[in-house]
């Protein structure tokens, strides 16, 4: 059985859990990370030298990096609707997964650390204001895109890209600051909320 190492409150672990729910893949999860088993031990570092969750073990195969993990699981156990096999369709899914992990993730970093984690190193008012503005700019890109698709990130059907993007939208809505109105993002979030996998893992790791 698939072994998942990581705490359920981690946004990157939740990507993996939600993916498993979408493909009906059974797993066993172990609590690793802050507040649980430490990731800086020789045992964990032998699996991931970055000392970060999630890590999976599938038989004798060990893999880290959340987006690599969900792509692997969808390719091995999923179907072409979730993660297409045709090159151009797959590239569109990958484009938005990579956008989430690079551009969107980077934009929210300061605001999230300041407003949610209350990090003393992230309390500069000007940097916070700039961070919120940058985050809003990228979310407006997503809103315009969802207006054009009318449903999910790459079109009418839910795909693997909607898992990291959907979790990012959850983080956007759960962070306490003055957000611009994004009607297409709001509609998209409600659409995701009807999926059993999202109800299990989409809201900060709690049903």
TrEMBL record:
Signal peptide start-end: none
InterPro entries on file: Glutathione-S-Trfase_C-like (IPR010987), Glutathione-S-Trfase_C_sf (IPR036282), Glutathione_S-Trfase (IPR040079), Glutathione_S-Trfase_N (IPR004045), GST_C (IPR004046), Thioredoxin-like_sf (IPR036249)
Pfam families in the record: GST_C, GST_N
Record CDD domains: GST_N_2
Domain GST N-terminal residues, every copy: 1-81
Similarity comment: family membership: Belongs to the GST superfamily.
Identification of the protein by name: Glutathione S-transferase
Organism of provenance: Aeromonas encheleia
């Amino acid at each position: 059985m698939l072994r998942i190492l990581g705490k359920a409150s981690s946004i990157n672990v939740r990507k993996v859990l939600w993916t498993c729910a979408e493909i009906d893949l059974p797993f066993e999860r172990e609590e690793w990370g802050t507040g649980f088993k430490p990731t800086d031990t020789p045992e964990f570092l032998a699996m991931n030298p970055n000392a970060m969750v999630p890590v999976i073990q599938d038989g004798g195969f060990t893999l880290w990096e959340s987006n690599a993990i969900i792509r692997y699981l969808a390719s091995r156990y999923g179907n072409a609707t979730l993660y297409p096999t045709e090159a151009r369709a797959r590239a569109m899914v990958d484009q938005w997964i990579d956008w989430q992990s690079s551009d969107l993730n980077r934009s929210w970093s300061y605001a999230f650390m300041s407003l949610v984690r209350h990090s003393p190193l992230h309390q500069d008012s000007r940097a916070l204001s700039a961070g919120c503005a940058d985050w809003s700019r990228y979310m407006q890109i997503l809103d315009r895109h969802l207006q054009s698709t009318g449903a999910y990130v790459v079109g009418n059907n839910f795909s693997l890209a909607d898992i990291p993007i959907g979790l990012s939208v959850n983080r956007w809505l759960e962070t306490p600051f003055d957000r611009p109105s994004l009607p297409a993002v709001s509609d998209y979030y409600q659409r995701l909320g009807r999926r059993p996998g999202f109800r299990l893992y989409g809201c900060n790791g709690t049903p």
